[in-house]
Specification:
The chain is of the alpha/beta class. It folds into two domains: about 45 residues, no CATH class; about 80 residues, Ribosomal Protein L15, Chain: K, domain 2. Helices cover about 20% and strands about 15% of the residues.
Length: about 160
Amino acid sequence: MIHELTKSTGRTKSWKRVGRGDSSGAGNYCGKGMKGQKARAGGNVPAWFEGGQTPLHMRLPKLRWFKRYFKLLKYYEPVNVGHLEADDRIEASSKVTKEVLTELGYLRKPTSLVKILWTGTLTKKLSFEGIDALSATALKKIEEAGGSVALVETV
């Protein structure tokens, strides 16, 4: 209920009373060092500030035919075989597809790229279908457990 909501402990930090003499441990320069932009009043430097050099958003070309590099990269969502082993919802000798992984919450959507990685142990005989990529160790361990992998041809 809304009236039962409370602030979690450690959410806010109590401020430190500074500038009350050298013996207080936070006097004189109040923990800000000696000089410089961040020692002055209102000297907050934004996180994206690059020290006066031309910022990244101004360095990138803005003319036609420029491809942004992050749109050219393929982002794989990792799935560890050890997590599938520990999951009670996946039975031994069952078929694992992108749709199954999405229903179980391992993937965001069934159209996303998936890469099977190796962590832990595997005793279940799982057959993977429609998988985009997997590590060499994962392939070896899956085949040792009696499972199979069918990769999708990615261009």
